[in-house]
Amino acid sequence: MATRPEADDFARRVPKAEIHLHLEGSVDLDTLQAMKRGRGEPPSAAERARLGALYRHCDFPGFLRNFRDLCAEIKTAQDFALITEALSRRLERDAVRYAEVFCSPSIFAGRGLSAGEIMQAVSEAARRREA
Questions:
Q1: Torsion over CA: 69, 73, 76, 78 (sign)
Q2: Which residues pair with 17 in a beta bridge?
């Protein structure tokens, strides 16, 4: 019988597809903190704890609240570029050969980010990773 690390390694190496992946929902805690540092907002211990809580939920309504609050942390086109690059690295590491990734620029329309700015940042980051 395989040990947990062996099983995890096997699962990571098997080619796979990622279906219905929200770009905004793919943000991990490290990337979220990098986004904030990139905007000159180094998180304190209390801020790290607050951000970490966005990844813990008990039910679907809790997940939706956390998703909304996570999206509120995405403020610039550069944030979208960082998210795209981090997701691309994760997909590559996990042997994902096909990913259906989409984002929802309309969420950010009232926050000063246009769909064009978002898509340009995402496209450029994806092209950099592809190269």
A1: negative
A2: 98
12 contacts 95 by C-beta, under 8 angstroms:
yes
Instruction: Give pairs for 41-48: CB < 8 Å, separation 24+.
Output: none
Cα pseudo-dihedral 107, 108, 110, 116, rounded to 10: -120
Q: Where does residue 122 rank: exposed (0-12), middle (13-18), buried (19+ CB within 10 A)?
A: buried
Distance CA 26, CA 86 (A): 9
Are the C-beta atoms of residues 88 and 80 closer than 8 Å to each other?
no
Tokens of residue 88, six digits:
């691309």
Predicted TM-score (pTM) of the model is 0.88
Q: What is the mean pLDDT of each run of 10 residues along the chain (131 residues)?
A: 80 90 95 93 88 95 95 95 96 94 90 92 93 84
CA distance 13 to 102: 24
In the DSSP assignment, the letter for residue 116 is H
Q: What is the DSSP letter of 44?
A: -
N-terminal to C-terminal alpha carbon distance within the chain:
40
CA angle 75/78/106 to nearest 5° reads 50
